[in-house]
Amino acid sequence: MAAQDIIIRPIITEKTMAGNTIKKYTFEVRKDATKIDIAKAVEELFGVKVSKVNTLHVRGQLRRQGRNQGYTRSWKKAVVTLTEDSKTIEFFESMV
Asked: What's the burial of 62, exposed, middle or buried (CB within 10 Å: 0-12/13-18/19+)?
């Protein structure tokens, strides 16, 4: 599985951007990706050293439009912490 297939997109919110100062970056990842897969993919894509990966499953939420209702899709989120001596990810630096 290629690194581009594992990491789907970065999560850009106020809360995740606050973590960038302490080298914590948040991504949406494939549901079947393991922590080891995610760490290798981030290291390969961005050329950084990963110290820790935390993952969580985000449940789909109930949404209504008039009489109709359904659930948004569920997905997996990964919070990647880089080592102290690692460089930062430039993509996120341009967002601040």
From this structure: exposed
Neighbouring C-beta atoms of residue 35, cutoff 10 Å: 15
Residue 57 dihedral angles phi and psi, to the nearest 5°:
-95, 130
* Maximum CA extent, the chain: 54
User: Domain segments of the chain: what residues?
Assistant: 3-93
Read off φ and ψ for residue 4, nearest 5 degrees.
-65, -25
Contacts of residue 39, defined as CB under 8 A and 6 or more positions apart, other chains included, come to 50, 53, 80
Work out the angle at residue 87's Cα, subtended by the Cα atoms of residues 85 and 92, and round it to the nearest 5 degrees.
140
Look up the CATH number of domain 3-93: 3.30.70.330
Q: For strand 24-29 and strand 50-58, is the pairing parallel, antiparallel, or unpaired?
A: unpaired
pLDDT tens digits, 43-78: 999 999 999 999 999 999 999 999 999 999 999 999
